[in-house]
Amino acid sequence: MRTVAVVLAGGVGQRAGLGMPKQLARIAGRTIIEHTVAAFEAAPEVDEIVVLMAAGHTDEAARLVAGFPKVSQVIEGGASRTETTWRALSALGTQECRVLLHDAVRPFVEPRVIADCVAALETSAAVMVAVPTSDTIVVTGGDLVRDIPDRAPLRRVQTPQCFLLSVVREAYTRALADPAFASRPATDDCGVVLRYLPDVPIRVVAGSEHNMKVTHPVDFHIAEKLFQVTASVPSASPETLRQVLSGRRLVVFGDPRLGGLAAEHGALASCLTVPVSDAAAVREALAEAAEAGPIDAVVLGAGTETYAEPEAGPSDGGHVGASTEADPGQAEAGSAPDVVIAGHLGALHVAEAALPYLRDTHGQLLLHAPAPTGAAGVSAAAAVAALTRFLAEEWSGHGVRVNCVTGTARTSLDVLACGGTGLVIGSG
Ligand SMILES: Nc1ccn([C@@H]2O[C@H](COP(=O)(O)OP(=O)(O)OP(=O)(O)O)[C@@H](O)[C@H]2O)c(=O)n1
Ligand SMILES: C[C@](O)(CO)[C@H](O)COP(=O)(O)O
């Protein structure tokens, strides 16, 4: 039986107050709806994704999700969440399937939650995701407290809410035929099943505190921070790496290991050993590399391993390897530590020089952040992370992705292959 994830993005986001649907707001360089669709695209249990989008924004949604092969339809949503769900159910045809109804504005849904939901559908026709409440919940009447229910069995409800199609469709058919439903609509899909098919048990799967719903203005700040601390990339398979890298031209400043590893997967990698603290030298080197053909990715290498040599004393802030700085003594004695000069300034120089080439190929810039050790390392790493997020946002208009990594050459390849932007992997 196929499993279809339905991403409900039909709302207008009134409470968020952006003046546009909040699912189109960017967090960590990507719209919320893209993050959410990406979560289901990556879930092996999901075969197909159907997107329901607010009226007037379906073309934009279709453009945003065009790169996700599992997306089969982008449909206009309804005036209420219930109506949007009904449109989705109507679009799914008559053949039985598993349906995962998910709020587009819950972009942090975790692989474990999706897997648990699909597994629970093996034995239950209706599945809800929920977490215990850490607040005391009260029942009010006017401005008075009427009751304080026992907190232990209370749960806060999340999505996805998952069903066999025939079951959820029957519940909605009954609800829409009931004149009382319009005056007291359900706030979630399990509520429709509970009210109209009370004999169908609804299984509860443990949700996650990360699976927040972006609803109010403050949630954008929380979500941005959550993306920063939870960012990770899956380990790409050799087939994926070959698919992504084969025939692609990579220019790597420093880090010959990364260039070599990329070449093993079919990339055409050029490793440049120019001093990245010299903006003109970086520009010239890239111009020369571009003579050989379009550039798909530019990497500022020489990260962790080069900066965090154990023998580097705190006085010099770590040294920059010869692979990045042809002449490590280039940075003037007594000036900023090399880790700042090559790590931060080098990132600025490489980014500035790379944009014209990456714009042409809709390519990717990958910056290696210095290891966040010592005052110089910590501040340089933070600067490169902030630069990454800023450029990811700014360059998304050019179709150029920007990511940052502190880690091994292999992790860098995973980041190059992951399709994300604005990611800071391996440090905050
Ligand atoms: N007519 C609607 C209303 C809501 N939703 C979706 O249901 C999810 C949860 O709804 P909510 O947070 O209330 O989103 P909005 O309706 O956009 O927000 P608001 O109520 O503040 O306007 C969102 O992904 C939203 O896009 C939908 O598909 N169709
Ligand atoms: C479905 C839901 O996310 C479960 O908590 C919630 O009920 C949606 O409510 P909203 O008012 O449409 O955001």
Automatic annotation (TrEMBL):
Q: Which residues form the signal peptide?
A: none
The top EC class, named as a word, is: transferase
Concerning SUPFAM superfamilies, the annotation shows: NAD(P)-binding Rossmann-fold domains, Nucleotide-diphospho-sugar transferases
Protein's name according to its UniProt entry = 2-C-methyl-D-erythritol 4-phosphate cytidylyltransferase
What reaction does this catalyse? 2-C-methyl-D-erythritol 4-phosphate + CTP + H(+) = 4-CDP-2-C-methyl-D-erythritol + diphosphate
Record-marked site positions (Positions MEP for the nucleophilic attack) = 151, 213
| E.C. number(s) listed in UniProt | 2.7.7.60
Q: Which organism is it from?
A: Sphaerisporangium rubeum
Origin: domain of life = Bacteria
> Region entry Disordered: which residue ranges?
307-334
Pathway it works in: Isoprenoid biosynthesis; isopentenyl diphosphate biosynthesis via DXP pathway; isopentenyl diphosphate from 1-deoxy-D-xylulose 5-phosphate: step 2/6
Protein keywords: Isoprene biosynthesis, Nucleotidyltransferase, Transferase
Provide the family line.
Belongs to the IspD/TarI cytidylyltransferase family. IspD subfamily.
> For this chain's UniProt record, which GO biological process terms are given?
isopentenyl diphosphate biosynthetic process, methylerythritol 4-phosphate pathway
Q: Does the keyword Nucleotidyltransferase apply?
A: yes
Membrane-traversing stretches: none
GO terms, molecular function = 2-C-methyl-D-erythritol 4-phosphate cytidylyltransferase activity
- Swiss-Prot/TrEMBL site (Transition state stabilizer) positions: 15, 22
Role summary = Catalyzes the formation of 4-diphosphocytidyl-2-C-methyl-D-erythritol from CTP and 2-C-methyl-D-erythritol 4-phosphate (MEP).
